[in-house]
Write a structure and sequence with these properties.
Layout lengths: L5 E6 L2 H9 L4 E4 L12 H10 L4 E4 L11 H16 L4 E4 L10 H11 L3 E4 L9 H8 L5 E6 L10 H11 L5 E5 L6 H11 L3 E4 L15 H11 L2
Length: 234
Amino acid sequence: MSSKVILEVIATTLAEVKAAAAYGADRIELITAMNEGGLTPSIGLIEEAVKSVSIPVNVMLRPHSRSFVYDKEDIQTLLSEVRRIRRAGANAIVFGALTPKGEIDTRLLQRVLDRAGDMRMTFHRAFDEVKNQAAALDQLLAYPQITTILTSGGQPRVLDAAEQIQMLVARSAGTHCSILAGSGLSPNRDELRAFLDFTGVQQVHFGSGVREEGKSLAPIDLMRMTEVRSILQG
């Protein structure tokens, strides 16, 4: 395991953005509606978050939590929001879209990437609903702007998908795109270190795992963040 594993932390308020940065996060995923899997935050929060911290702020681009299949009206909203997120100075957008058949919606993906310009993209956990993750990864590797794929390996809890994560890490090795493992990670030293060692993953994504009592709507906890940072440093 490398001595430097990137820690991405979910933030839903400006106070959480500042706390995550102060407590050792390497990157923020800025969202609202955490219990719905994350939706696009307000433009005011995006602007204030970007101004308030020196670490990258990646912004969720998701208009609703019904599915990852988007209609004409959803697309209008998405394209409008991309423009505003870019103007606010975000590091990247966090986005994913699927067809009704459960495949990556490459047409919409390209439209969003075109609108994003030089902004990078994390393809989010829509990836966990595709039928064939290896094939989907190969598709996403065709897009230079997609530098990260957030995934739980198709399982509710990423620790139960260690072999799948290992395969995805190996398949993406040497490319411009990294696997970001998330969902159900916690400051359990033995569990987390075993997962990192086995999979070789170099980026991890924490939400409730770094909050007080592991509760999704609780504040970010300094002690939990400190423990996670310690584990990631080996």
